[in-house]
Design a protein that fits this description.
Chain lengths: ~325, ~280
């Protein structure tokens, strides 16, 4: 709004500043639920978690300051070591497998075929099943004697592993279950695949590039931002892996009153161990220290993963 | 091109599409198999579970397995409780999330630029970090065994849904709001009478996502609900698992009841699942 004379300009400025003030209060009012929630459910708990992590606290007696003892204990605790190793396995082995699987599923969903909506629906359906329900279902499906999977395997004359009782097979079972339910990720990849402009493929075909070459030089770079996003979110959720393992551990290994870790603690994940310390043993101080370490690990790993992948991601997509 | 190579190409095409369909059908069978197996098990007598070869369709479907679940545990109560802990958060989210999103996307104030990055950053905080202090606080306030700790957090806006909502509002023309302001409409009216109806697709998506998340949640109810009369299906199923160890037909019946509402919602809101989620959960 070009104003030539000085006086109206001043009036205008006054008006805009009054307007700005009004907007400030309106903005604040509409955002206030979140601001209150942020202070009560995020800032306050994080601050108290930091405080508790330096104390010994079982909820019956007031917290007792013990300095860095929790953190020192944490580094020598064999359960922490075991749970960290199991969780790392899920991040390093499980996550790439399930992301690649989701990618393959997306490419299958992208095929041109009659009845594709039906196939897509079927492939997506397992991801609608609650994670607790799918864990309970897989306890039965993967049952080494009566489960459907081992029945099928014995049908072709082989003997299936005892998926849930052999410490070497428990985590692969969880990964297989994850692949069964990764339709949600596949649909996101599918949307990315569909957004790749077809003229790129046409040009590549004219230049004589095969399907394989097209996949690596066009598809992957074009959808790399989506892959990166899913990868970062996946790291986050794998580090917090809980529900499915919790349900598995109720049936396998020596589960008593206390939350179990599966056969030979092969499914004792970081969050399971943390839950056990906090809500079975009421070691609130120690559990808070575990939570803080998890937080730091997730932050560092996410940061590194972002930095490293940023160099590989092509942001030149429209 | 002569006729011969043409028929050859057609033959190649036909065999290719046979392979393609065989593959698609095979894969679909593998994916649907566990669910079919779940329902099939739930209709078998207990002795029938351990029969070889497998019976896919039970000769005499034992429908009373389902009524036995309701007799063994208070499953009707669990369903009622789960509806409370899933529907109230949906109401809360659909009320508060648009307000916060409106503030950071349609009101020109300085705070918006500060709040939005913080909202994104809070998505990175693992639940385990806040869980323990929250548990201690709620138990000091005497809210253990109530639904307050499970419901109240949804009435202050959840970061991910605020983010989805904001992305959608950003795509609406700004002139809408400006015109309404010039006409002298208040912001509450602008949001709930003009913007809100336009946001229906994303509101449906968010509502469905919140409902599913709450319906499925095991961790929260596990910590906060100790009295079995307060149990949601997820915790109820967990304690039922311990008491019904090898009665797989009952466990699978309970599991089917637990899963069925979500499958129904999926078919009702299929567009939101297969279209909405993928268009809204991309990148900034």
């Amino acid at each position: 709004m070009p104003e030539n004379t000085l006086a109206p300009n001043l009036a205008h400025n006054k008006k805009t500043s009054r307007q700005q003030k009004r907007f400030f209060w309106i903005g604040l009012a509409f955002a206030s639920p979140w601001i209150i929630g942020f202070l009560l459910f995020k800032v306050y708990p994080i601050c108290s978690a930091i405080y508790f992590s330096f104390t010994k606290y079982n909820m019956f007696k007031p917290p007792e300051w013990i300095g860095l003892d929790n953190y020192k204990e944490l580094f020598t605790d064999p359960y922490v070591k075991k749970s960290f190793a199991n969780t790392t396995y899920m991040v390093i082995v499980g996550l790439p497998i399930s992301l690649s699987f989701a990618m393959v599923m997306a490419m299958i969903m992208n095929l041109r075929a009659k009845g594709m909506p039906l196939f897509r629906t079927i492939l997506y359906l397992p991801s609608v099943v609650p994670s607790m329900a799918s864990a309970l279902l897989f306890l039965w499906v993967m049952n080494s004697r009566y489960g459907i999977v081992n029945n099928m395997i014995s049908f072709i004359g082989l003997k299936g592993p005892s998926w849930l009782n052999d410490p070497d097979w428990t985590k692969p079972t969880l990964i297989i279950m994850g692949c069964w339910g990764c339709g949600g990720t596949a649909v996101i990849f599918l949307a990315a695949l569909k957004s790749v402009p077809t003229h790129l493929y046409e040009a590549a075909r004219l230049d004589g590039a095969g399907k394989w070459r097209q996949f690596w030089t066009i598809t992957i770079p074009m959808i790399s931002p989506t892959i990166q996003f899913q990868f970062i979110m996946g790291i986050n959720s794998m580090f917090q892996y809980f529900t499915q393992a919790f349900v598995f551990n109720m049936f396998t290994g020596s589960a008593g009153q206390v939350t179990g870790g599966g056969p030979a603690n092969s499914m004792l994940f970081y969050s399971i161990n943390l839950y056990r310390e906090a809500f079975d043993y009421l070691n609130m101080g120690y559990a808070s220290a575990l939570a803080m370490v998890l937080f730091i690990i997730i932050l560092v790993v996410t940061f590194v993963a972002m930095r490293v992948s940023d160099r590989m991601v092509n942001y030149d997509v429209e | 091109m002569n006729k011969n190579t043409n028929t050859l190409a057609v033959a190649k095409n036909v065999s290719g599409s046979i392979i393609k369909y065989a593959f698609l059908i095979g894969l679909s069978c593998i994916f649907i198999m566990p669910l079919v197996w779940m329902v099939s098990t739930s209709l078998k007598p207990n002795q029938g579970l351990f029969v070889f070869p497998i019976e896919w369709i039970p000769k005499e479907p034992q429908w009373h397995n389902y009524s036995r679940v309701f007799e063994r545990v208070d499953f009707a109560g669990y369903i009622k409780n789960t509806l409370i802990t899933s529907l109230t958060p949906v109401v809360g989210t659909l009320l508060v999330t648009p307000m916060v999103a409106y503030s950071i996307s349609m009101v020109p104030w300085k705070g918006a630029k500060i709040i939005f990055p913080i909202i994104l950053a809070t998505m990175m905080i693992p639940g385990q970090v806040t869980q323990i202090p929250m548990y201690i606080t709620w138990s000091k306030l005497g809210f253990i065994n109530t639904y307050v700790p499970l419901i109240l957090p949804y009435f202050v806006g959840t970061p991910y849904y605020i983010y989805l909502m904001r992305q959608f509002m950003k795509s609406l023309p700004n002139s809408l709001v400006e015109a309404a302001r010039i006409d002298g409409a208040g912001d509450v009216r602008i949001l709930f009478q003009i913007i809100y109806p336009l946001c229906r697709p994303v509101l449906t998506t968010i509502g469905v996502l919140v409902f599913i998340a709450c319906w499925n949640d095991l961790n929260g109810p596990l910590i906060y609900l100790q009295d079995s009369s307060k149990y949601t299906i997820a915790v109820g199923l967990k304690s039922f698992m311990l008491s019904a160890k090898t009665d797989w037909e009952l466990l699978m019946a309970a599991n089917t009841i637990f899963t069925l509402p979500l499958i129904i919602i999926f078919f009702l809101a299929q567009k939101q699942f297969l279209g909405g989620i993928s268009t809204t959960s991309g990148l900034k």
